[in-house]
Amino acid sequence: MSQYPRDYRGRFAPSPTGPLHFGSLVAAVGSYLQARHQQGQWLVRMEDLDRPRCVKGADSQILKTLERYGMVWDGEVMYQSQRDTAYNIALEQLEAMNACYPCACSRSEIAAIARPGSEGPIYPGTCRKGLAEGKKVNAIRTRLDDAVISFHDLLQGEITQYLFRDLGDFVIRRADSLFAYQLAVVVDDAEQGITEVVRGSDLLESTPRQIWLQQKLGYHTPTYLHLPIAVNAAGEKLSKQTFATAIDDQEPRPQLIKALNFLGQQVPGDAADSTLDDLWQWAIQHWSLAKLPATRQIPAADEQDSSILPPINN
Ligand code: GLU
Does residue 260's CB lie within 6 angstroms of at least one atom of ligand 1? Predict the structure, then answer.
């Protein structure tokens, strides 16, 4: 068992759609340090829910990279692909309280009538009163009330969302019968007893939907900390889609130092000479929320650009 007390439980939840890149390393390092600085637990969950997008072997590659970087997780790695029973139970719970309904609309039907929102078309609730004659169920959607969800993000401050007005009834089971991320993440955070979610700010807008589901399902709401995400010169999030390069497994220290500096932790210049263990020791001890840049995104210097790296003396 772990040497860490049970009070704080954080997690890192990568989608195994490819190897870790600098953007995902930032989320891993931020969540790891926030947990370890408080002598808390740090769990890993593979978000391999969206089978068609997952890449075979990417999960073990990610775990190997975490190990090489010296990030040790607690307990067993959870795999979302094995959790359909739990998601089904949650879905049945929502059905029993009339908090969701089947929807027969196709994407193009929705696009033709919906207002645009920050996260795509705002579903106008067409199927709320039942499916039209002869229509087949496509997806399952939440039946939102007029809830205004507000929460205090530890870094980004007060966030308020009018769910129905600004987002619309959202999908919890997709047309291809796969459970949607919003439902799965809520069920899994509850199952793993996560007390605080530390992840990239690209998910800030998802959090109110997750809190709404937690409230319906009677789960505890964790605290949230949304880190700045690394973006490329075009302002796009580093990701597989934007061809972010995989981080180097062989020599973790330069990327780790870059991630720490990205997170405002100001690694001392001579840290480059220290071992990986010493670097972690320094980082765990000196981790400071106050030093995190309170912004949603920061351009990441690319691999060639060493401007945010202290000199490395190899
Ligand atoms: N699986 C998501 C990702 O890789 C993270 C989800 C989360 O942390 O809630 O971007």
Answer: no
**C-alpha span between 25 and 66 (Å, rounded):** 9
For residues 234 and 277, membership in a common domain is answered with yes
Task: Return the number of other C-beta atoms located less than 10 Å from residue 115's C-beta.
Answer: 11
pTM to 2 decimal places: 0.93
pLDDT of residue 269: 86
Q: Is 13 in the pocket of ligand 1 (CB under 6 A)?
A: yes
Q: What is residue 239's predicted lDDT score, i.e. its pLDDT?
A: 82
Torsion sign, CA atoms 215, 216, 218, 220: negative
Find the CATH number of the domain harbouring 27.
3.40.50.620
- 313 inside domain: no
Domain that holds residue 219: 9-81+186-299
* Long-range contacts (CB closer than 8 Å, 24 or more residues apart) made by 118-122: 118/166, 118/167, 118/205, 119/167, 119/205, 121/168, 122/165, 122/166, 122/167, 122/168
204 shares a domain with 174: no
Ligand 1 closest atom vs CA 14: 4
Q: Whose CA is nearest to atom 7 of ligand 1?
A: 13
Whole-angstrom distance between the N-terminal and C-terminal Cα of the chain? 37
Task: Show the low-confidence residues of the chain (pLDDT under 50).
Answer: 1, 303-314
199 Cβ inside 6 Å of ligand 1: yes
Largest CA distance in the chain: 72
